[in-house]
Specification:
Helix content is about 35%, strand content about 25%. It is α/β, with parallel strands linked by helices. It starts with 20 loop residues before the first helix and ends with a helix. The model has no long low-confidence stretch (mean pLDDT about 95).
């Protein structure tokens, strides 16, 4: 007797969605009488949310009144004269992609994420930053966007922009493979060894999902992992340092988004001249 297909691995990827982010945005705008105005072109997902709490407490951000989302609040931060959207607590692949879909449909041009992460590579310093270039797909959301395969990839222009801006910070910065999981409390020592041997630097919960969404929708996304804990790490765990350091990381991520916008506009101008 043949086994039925596994639903997660059997999506009809070429078929259109029955429910779209545009539908939800229209419903929110109608209910709240919001104008049909675009959000800032560069938006950052603050997966933990404590940095956004601090920004609100020191009055460094203002609410974005034009964000048509039932589930989240957006704040606006000025970085070098550029308005950037900040959305806190979008942790996990499903939630991150739900919000990224709505950002792409609301006028955003680039979505970047800042997440806490655990060390996988034994050589990685703690604390440090990891710019995810690809992600092991040990989660579910990516399979709704891309056919089953081992890894989801980030666009090189996104990782290059992030590396250019983050390298000047007072933290070690690496780029490479991360492991995305849906179940942080089911990480086993065997998995840590396996993924470390495969070259993974850190483990987090969003990158593979966002990269698959970005590839399917042709929308630039990136993830920066702040590695703050590790199995066997004897010093203080989960310490991200002073809020000001996280703020500097955030501003560098926003500047990377601006680099991306410049590159996108340059590519658009080249295409228009060659058409």
């Amino acid at each position: 007797m043949s086994q039925p297909p596994i639903p997660l691995l059997d999506h009809l990827l070429g078929q259109p969605s029955a429910f779209t982010p545009e539908d939800l945005i229209a419903a929110v705008r109608a209910e709240r009488a919001l104008p049909d105005k675009p959000v800032p072109p560069v938006c950052v997902l603050d997966f933990d949310g404590d940095l956004t709490d601090w920004l609100v407490s020191v009055r460094a951000v203002l609410p974005c009144a034009d964000w048509g989302c039932f589930h989240t609040k957006m704040y606006v931060l000025d970085v070098d004269g550029m308005s950037c959207g900040i959305i806190p607590r979008t942790i996990g692949g499903p939630y991150a992609v739900l919000v990224a879909e709505q950002l792409a449909s609301s006028g955003a041009r680039v979505a970047l994420g800042l997440t806490s992460a655990g060390r996988v590579s034994r050589s990685l310093p703690v604390p440090s930053l990891v710019i995810a270039t690809q992600a092991i797909r040990d989660e579910g959301t990516s399979y709704h966007y891309l056919a089953p395969q081992d890894e989801a990839l980030c666009r090189p222009d996104v990782t290059d922009a992030l590396l250019s801006e983050l390298s000047s910070l007072d933290l070690p910065v690496s780029s490479g493979l991360v492991w995305t999981t849906d179940a942080p409390y089911r990480e086993t020592l065997q998995q840590l060894e396996q993924h470390s041997d495969a070259g993974a630097l850190a483990v987090e919960m969003q990158a593979a999902s966002l990269f698959a969404f970005g590839a399917a929708r042709q929308f630039p996304v990136g993830v920066v992992a702040h590695v703050t804990n590790a199995v066997g790490h004897t010093e203080e765990q989960f310490d991200k340092g002073e809020a000001q350091l996280s703020f500097e990381i955030l501003k560098s991520i926003c500047r990377a988004g601006r680099r991306m916008l410049t590159g996108l506009e340059r590519g658009r101008n080249i295409d228009s001249h060659t058409a």
